[in-house]
Recover the amino acids of this structure.
């Protein structure tokens, strides 16, 4: 099985770190993986995206033009990547960042109100983990135990006290994602 994923949004939304945690989680699950970030010169506020491929077999190229799953966290990302989803693919969007929702009928669309949930949890930094939790609910490409191991690997040790909150955010994301 091979899953080709694009995650896209504004810089500062945790797009690249979400991709990195997903990639590390796949490694913990003994999968083949690529992680390829792309971002403009702006660190915060500019657009950023990351391509992650998770596969049981060797991956021939990290370069993709079409995706199985797109996670879009703002309107420009939706407009750019909705057309690049394969028929039958999955599109996940955050309700806060999208003005004109997806229109394609040959894909499965999920909405996750991650920004609202992060505010409810009183920590905007867990926004990306809420979205990741939504992804893992509808497309379990990696196990949650592997995500916890990946958080230990990717987060600086001084932030390991945040791992329980991040795992709670992943659980909450799985609860609030809805189809349509």
């Amino acid at each position: 099985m091979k899953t080709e994923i694009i995650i896209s949004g504004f810089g500062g939304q945790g797009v690249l770190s979400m991709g990195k945690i997903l990639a590390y989680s796949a490694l913990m699950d003994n999968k083949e993986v690529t992680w390829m970030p792309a971002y403009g010169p702006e660190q915060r506020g500019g657009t950023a995206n990351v391509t992650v491929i998770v596969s049981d077999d060797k991956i021939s190229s990290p370069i993709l033009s079409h995706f199985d799953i797109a996670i879009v966290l703002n309107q420009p990302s939706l407009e750019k990547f909705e057309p690049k989803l394969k028929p039958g693919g999955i599109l996940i969007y955050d309700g806060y960042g999208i003005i004109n929702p997806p229109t394609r009928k040959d894909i499965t669309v999920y909405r996750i109100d991650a920004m609202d949930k992060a505010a409810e949890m009183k920590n905007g930094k867990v926004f990306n983990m809420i979205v990741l939790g939504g992804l893992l609910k509808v497309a379990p490409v990696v196990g949650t135990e592997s995500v916890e191991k990946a958080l230990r690997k990717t987060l600086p040790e001084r932030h390991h006290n945040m791992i329980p909150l991040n795992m709670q955010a992943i659980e909450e994301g799985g609860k609030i994602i809805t189809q349509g």
Summary: The two ends are 26 Å apart (CA to CA). The mean pLDDT is 93. Residues 15-28 form the longest helix (14 residues).
